[in-house]
Design a protein that fits this description.
The complex is a heterodimer. Chain A has helices spanning 4-14, 24-35, 40-50, 54-61, 83-87, 90-101, 143-152, and strands at 75-80, 114-119, 131-133, 136-138. By secondary structure, chain A is α+β, with helices and mostly antiparallel strands. In chain A, helix 1 packs antiparallel against helix 2 (24-35) and helix 2 packs across helix 3. Chain B is α/β, with parallel strands linked by helices. In chain B, helix 2 packs parallel to helix 6, helix 13 (335-349) crosses helix 16 and helix 14 packs antiparallel against helix 15 (380-390). The chains are: A alpha+beta, B alpha/beta.
């Protein structure tokens, strides 16, 4: 059940656009910000608030890479795999993350501490390789530093 | 390495910055002449004349395609019954190897806002959207604060500077998809749908967001507008060393000594940027190839390094200036592996709308992977070339797939032996 605050925020977001469908992405993000991910139940409730079909929300929610349709970890690690980071060894960073967390790309650790995802170029190419953990960007990484960072996000 | 002396006469975009490159907030921006261009445009220039000035300035879109901004603006209906029209600022920067818009938004947000306001005035727009990629969290915070400041100082809102005009800027943050940078896909996404591109015509200037006339400009393009209005077209043209007017955010990343971006005049050579600003290649490494402006631009080689950086010269050399944020590829990099990385990115980011792109890109990735593992088949290179053709311009719904195969096509052209190497080993194993 969505909270009253979530409902108000979703309705407020409608004011920025010409119709309710246009605020669908914002609505999904409001729910995700509070709950970490967007459940089927949440889609159903957003659909009632915005008065748009559930299928419209579903197709949007499954299209965009930063809308999550299943529970995620407390910390989201997004490693940049774009071409400059590639030249600086992002594949080693990826292997290191997968080994340390014992998960593959797109998965969440069993203790729900981490979710590991790739990301489009983070625009930090002059400081490659780079990863983003939650809202924080870490630059000029190496494998040793990655392991240290994981310890910080227990 | 050259030290840049930034002045308002030579560096219209970045002269605002101090040594520490702190954010230029409104007090500092106004103190140095910020928003004067907007006031001048609002009080003394007719909207149609603003369009003429921008047209005459020769400003070309800085998002990658380089379409003349003034002409794009003049495509919007001038006198019509449309009472609602929109300006969209494309800040959905995700091109691998590109970080110029992020820099401008995070350091000089009011320059962008002033550019949007002047453009809104010229295009008779009262509501603009900044479509920002959601992963640019710091840029989002800074732009939100800057919009708040501009509203507080009376530049945004109702009856701006007692002109009777209203301006609203909405910061819209996306949800993650490279294709949103394509202008019709950006509109689809803003309308709350999957970011599938739309067929043109009709062009967004006539049927854009919510069916209304819509103009879409890049962050860097809009950031150029205030100085053009303030200092004039002749001055702007003279900033350049080539036929393209003004300056451009350019730079080099990759294994160079001082990777970064700088505001430089059009026409500066790639070698000058690489050696004088980026400090040359790291010790022990040689330049093998380079991409002039992002992952979707064709590879060029060392023989092209003295080319002036402008739209037509780079195009003549068989590539595109793109975002002009170049990437140096050193001689330790295997070109097949590098292109595999690029194609994996484009394959992942295909919106899936049309078959050549949706099915062709994963096919290319699969072939490149087998070549990388030295398990390629005899006809793999021919097949890759065939796919480059089938995914080329005019064969797909938008420019995503043609952009994706551009580096591959050029890689085969210049580094064919590295592709052949992936096959030869297999033949030996078969023997």
């Amino acid at each position: 059940m969505l909270s009253k605050e979530e409902e108000i925020d979703i309705l407020k977001s409608k004011n920025n656009y010409e119709d309710a469908q246009s605020s669908s992405i914002e609505a999904l993000k409001i729910v995700q910000k509070n709950r970490g991910w967007v459940s089927k139940q949440a889609i159903c409730e957003i659909s009632k608030i915005l008065k748009i079909p559930e299928s419209n929300l579903e197709e949007v929610a499954t299209f965009y890479s930063q809308i999550f349709r299943k529970p995620i970890g407390r910390n989201i690690i997004r490693y940049c795999d774009s071409v400059v980071c590639y030249m600086y060894g992002c594949e080693d960073i990826k292997s290191c993350l997968e080994d340390a967390l014992n998960i593959a790309i797109g998965e969440t650790t069993q203790d729900l501490r981490f979710t590991l995802l790739p990301i489009c170029c983070l625009g930090n190419c002059d400081n490659a390789p780079t990863i983003m953990i939650n809202d924080n960007i870490y630059s000029r990484l190496n494998v040793k530093r990655v392991v240290e960072l994981l310890e910080l996000y227990k | 390495m050259k030290k840049i002396l930034r002045t308002s006469e030579t560096h219209p975009l970045t002269w605002w910055l101090n040594e520490k490159k702190d954010v230029v907030w409104i007090q500092e921006y106004k103190k140095n002449g910020g928003y004067l261009a907007f006031e001048k445009a609002l009080k003394t220039i007719k909207p149609v004349d603003i369009i003429s000035i921008v047209k005459e300035s020769g400003l070309k879109g800085r998002g990658g395609a380089g379409f003349p901004t003034g002409i794009k603006w003049s495509l919007m209906p001038q006198k019509s019954n449309f009472d609602v029209r929109y300006l969209l600022c494309n800040a959905d920067e995700m091109e691998p190897g590109t970080y110029k818009d992020k820099f401008l938004m995070e350091k000089i947000p009011h320059q962008l806002i002033e550019g949007i306001l002047i453009s809104s005035l010229a295009l008779n727009v009262s509501k603009s959207y900044i479509f920002l990629r959601c992963e640019y969290i710091q840029a989002e915070h800074i732009l939100k604060k800057a919009i708040f400041e501009a509203t507080k100082f009376g530049y945004i809102g109702n009856n701006v500077l007692k002109s009777g005009l209203n301006f609203e800027i909405v910061l819209h943050s996306g949800a993650g998809r490279y294709i949103c940078g394509e202008e019709t896909a950006l509109i689809s996404s803003l309308e709350g749908n999957r970011a599938n591109p739309k067929y043109k015509p009709p062009f967004p200037a006539h049927v854009g967001a919510w069916g209304k006339p819509t103009c879409i400009n890049n962050v860097e393009t809009l950031s150029n507008i205030p100085s053009i209005i303030l200092h004039g077209t002749k001055w702007y043209k003279n900033l350049s060393k080539s036929i393209d007017s003004g300056t451009k955010m350019m730079g080099f990343s990759g294994k160079v000594k001082n990777p970064g971006l700088w505001e430089l005049p059009f026409g500066i050579t790639a070698r000058e940027i690489l050696e004088d600003y980026a400090g040359g290649m790291n010790s022990g490494l040689n330049l093998k190839a380079w991409q002039p402006g992002g992952a979707s631009t064709e590879l060029l080689t060392f023989k092209h390094i003295d080319l002036p950086m402008n739209f037509s010269t780079i195009q003549h050399a068989g590539s595109r200036l793109g975002t002009a944020l170049a990437m140096a590829i050193d001689d330790t990099v295997n070109i097949v592996s590098l292109v595999r990385n690029i194609e994996e990115f484009f394959s992942r980011e295909s919106c899936g709308w049309c078959t050549p792109c949706r099915d062709g890109l994963p096919w290319i990735v699969s072939i490149l992977k087998s070549l990388e593992m030295h398990q390629g088949h005899e006809n793999d290179i021919d097949l890759l070339e065939e796919l480059c053709c089938q995914l080329g311009p005019g064969r797909t719904f938008c420019a995503h797939a043609p952009g994706a195969v551009s580096p591959l096509k050029s890689a085969i052209k210049y580094f064919r032996s590295e592709f052949e190497c992936g096959i030869r080993t297999t033949s030996i194993i078969n023997i």
